[in-house]
Amino acid sequence: MSATIIDGKAYAAGLRARIADAVKDLGQRGVRPGLAVVLVGEDPASQIYVRSKARLTVEAGMASFEHVLPASTREAELLALVAKLNADPTVDGILVQLPLPKQIDAQKVIEAIDPAKDVDGFHPINAGRLMTGVPGFVSCTPLGCLLLIRSVRRDLAGLDAVVVGRSNIVGKPMAQLLLSQSCTVTIAHSKTHDLRAVCRRADILVAAVGRPEMVRGDWIKPGAIVIDVGINRVPNPSAGEGKTKVVGDVAYGEAARIASAITPVPGGVGPMTIACLLRNTLEAACLRRGLAMPALH
Ligand SMILES: Nc1nc(=O)c2c([nH]1)NC[C@@H]1CN(c3ccc(C(=O)N[C@@H](CCC(=O)O)C(=O)O)cc3)C=[N+]21
């Protein structure tokens, strides 16, 4: 048996097309959603990622505002920019790319973003809303993961879900979303005893640890749904000296022989993150104007 490959790239393209249709409808009412992305520093991987976000934002018919600041930027300058974006009526969503340089307290910056414009869902107000079951912005990567899980299995009630990783941006909100779907949720992490045995219990396994191919085939319960959040750039000597490739947190070839469904890397969760960012920006634009969020299916 070989797993269904969950095509996140295709799902994300479809979602972006539906978002673009909704944005077109808003345009007829004189509304153009806008997303501001702030990048501090010149990390090449971050630059590529921010550029593709800007391109896809414009493709969806939204306004994209890019702010690239030098790595030496002071915390006060970044906070001043956030305050300006909070007050700017053409900006519906604000994303400050993480990680930030070490002289800047990222938590302070996150808490400075107006929760109504916090399309990343990182503000404690939105994290708290998710935890308490109140509508709010949900972090894009976990939201994308849930959409992919539900594309292969609609009803998740009673399933054992294991999330490996406890970050505020993926692991914790992912666990909350799975709980909201009535899964029995375990959050595992680097200190978990016998991680392999814990993972083997999972009907739904979400790997978000940032360690290349850590989850092996024999960690997976036969028939499980496996979601790989990892994006790890590793050497690829078979392609030539100095070449690299991107792999996930799951040993894909092994896992695909055991799982019932699995996301590839690249082409799985990554593209869904950006599509969900656009979805959240659309929602922010609607909410701020007292309009109903259009259905996207
Ligand atoms: N405030 C903030 N919000 C974020 O959402 C955020 C962030 N900071 N910092 C960086 C991470 C990373 N991230 C990705 C999104 C999409 C892909 C993506 O589309 N990846 C493609 C291409 C992968 C490749 O080939 O490099 C794929 O997986 O198929 C990757 C990475 C969002 N992040």
Which features does this protein show?
297 residues; Rossmann fold; 2 domains; 3-stranded parallel β-sheet; 40% helix; globular; binds 5,10-Methenyltetrahydrofolate; methylenetetrahydrofolate dehydrogenase (NADP+) activity; oxidoreductase; multifunctional enzyme
If you had to describe this structure to a student in words, what would you say it looks like?
With 297 residues, this protein is of the alpha/beta class. The chain contains ten helices and eleven strands. A hairpin with an 8-residue loop joins β9 and β10. The chain is globular and about 50 Å long. The model has no long low-confidence stretch (mean pLDDT 97). The structure holds 5,10-Methenyltetrahydrofolate.
List the helices and strands and how they pair.
Elements: E1 4-5, H1 8-28, E2 34-40, H2 44-59, E3 63-69, H3 75-87, E4 93-96, H4 106-112, H5 124-132, H6 140-152, E5 160-164, H7 171-180, E6 184-188, H8 195-200, E7 204-207, E8 225-228, E9 232-235, E10 244-247, H9 252-256, E11 261-262, H10 269-288
Parallel strand pairs: 1-11, 2-3, 2-4, 5-6, 5-7, 7-8, 8-11
Antiparallel strand pairs: 9-10
